[in-house]
Fold this protein.
Amino acid sequence: MSKTSAGCQRTKEHIFFFFLFLAISLLVSGCAEQAVNPAELPSRESRIPADAVKMTPDTDLNLPVLHSDEFEKPVPFAPVNTAGAEDSPFMPADRDEFYFFFTPDVRVPVEKQILDGVTGIWVSKKQDGTWQEPERVMLQKPGKLAGDGCEFVAGNTMWFCTAREGYTGMHWARAEYKDGRWQNWKVDDFPPEYQVGELHFTRDWNEVYFHSKRAGGRGQEDIWVMQKKDGKWQEPKNVEVVNTESSDGWPYLTPDGNELWFNRFYKGTPAVFRSKKIDGEWQAPELIVEMFAGEPTLDNEGNLYFVHHYYDNGVMLEADIYVAYRK
């Protein structure tokens, strides 16, 4: 799959976000949403089709292949996985939470996924050392259509991609965490000519790394960085050392800013790579895990999480979040 817009972009092996191209154009604007009781929302399991088969490492035809001795063998991250598709994991450095994207049935046309009541951003919270049952992150008013994903969370701010009533096409938006929930979303697009795809901000919010198919890159998609000066985003710069003629994207920065994790297409499937910053310069990337592995994120202990897609004869069956615990 693929998507291109002034907001986010994805490659054809990823399940997430075609439906955001819905041209929803009612003349309303973003504002504070009414609170939604999670207990009144449908569960993920209630929308998973009866004939769905939960994949496991024993039935997987393309197990993730680890290329680093820093980590244990990758295993499914049980607290969030179902027979549906979990994708796009993200762990904030300063919140004990695990965010991800979910859709119950990858066979459903993407333009219809937005209608199922469960496709979107979900979060599991850790309490007393245990990950809790995930809850839907509701960023729209009750009864209103919205497609949200590409989540990035730091402190009480969430950036996300969205297509929703009141706006044509797809946009970047922000929400704030207040009174125990995410609310007060507002569209906050970057200059459209920058073609900002999925992103990661530095801790001071003055730099943002993102992937894009914008002109001037080396491959299908490249990783770019831009700085904010005097309140304005400057012209993006290509992070040349990490980019190839393939597709490089979905960046994740460690909190200290010294490691850049990202996707690259390697031997025909997505793989996870890492570049280290030494003396202020990014170094040549190293392969960490391959075989339908992508969208890396790390927790505060340095454990690696990524999405793994299950395929059979070129057909996607589902997707899970995997974790490789640091030794």
